[in-house]
Amino acid sequence: xxxxxxxxxxxxxxxxxxxxxxxIALIAxxxxxxxxxLVFPETWLPGYPTFVxxxxxxxxxxxxxxxxxxxxxNSVDVGKGGLExxxxxxxEHDMVLVVGFQERDSMVxxxxxxxSCAIIDADGRVANLHxxxxxxxxERMVWGFxxxxxxNVVDTxxxxxxxxxxxxxxxxxxxxxxxxxxxxxxVAPTWDSGASWLATMQHIAREGGCWVIGCxxxxxxxxxxxxxxxxxxxxxxxxxxxxxxxxxxxxxxGGVAAGPMHKEKGLLLTEIDVxxxxxxxxxxxxxxxxARPDVFTLTVNxxxxxxxxxx
Length: 311
Fold this sequence. Notes:
By secondary structure, this protein is α/β, with parallel strands linked by helices. The protein has a single domain (2-280), classed as Nitrilase/N-carbamoyl-D-aminoacid amidohydrolase, CATH 3.60.110.10. It has helices at residues 16-32, 61-73, 84-93, 172-179, 195-208, 231-234, 276-280; strands at 2-8, 37-39, 96-104, 113-120, 126-131, 154-156, 159-163, 185-189, 211-215, 219-220, 241-243, 245-250, 256-262, 266-272. Helix 1 packs parallel to helix 3 (84-93). The radius of gyration is 19 Å and the shape is globular.
């Protein structure tokens, strides 16, 4: 059996340095409880830009610009070693990490932001880096589009792990691309919550025959620092639960293993039998004996898409 943990604590909102320190403390806390895998929600570093859902496009463009600038300045630049503190913590605690973060890519423009998810193995290696393929609704005001280069399920110290971000999990072909790679643990960092989202997680566990971890950032308005521009206008009720979290773990082929953890902060921990995933697919294997490749086929373009090539 393998102990896994899910973060249901907020970051220090839009403060990358302090949020990174909090992440490292949470890794140590999970390790002390025997966890071999720790999952962070969607763009936990430096915090999901929930302001895009609270501002009016056009009318509030100036406010969006100011908040974007702050968010951009606190985004993770992987090319400049932005994940190295987490890689070091993974090595120190012999732990696999799945981390949602907002990425700034100085290797290209240095300006466009991406909603990214890294799988860091227990040896500190970045085993996979995936950028969200399709930002949802007003998210397109702050994020660019990812590509297929990160649609990978990768070997880690605790099994084969893959991840899709938030509403990518409603994209049947994206899910299928992961199912077809012998997945053990399917991670869905998100900003979504509630009954319909939990039903989706349950469905994926049954459809994919894999362990499914869903998690959003549990965040109250009181967690937003006073220094954030337009804080009082955006979050007037200090007691509001901006997001209840709803961290959850589902068993392969369905059934709750742990959670949902609703309007509560902390770590959700449970033990899983990683090998149960492959065994559960005897009854239904979406990319195996149920696939019918004579009728249906899927082609995935994994080439990294870049706007310029220097020769």
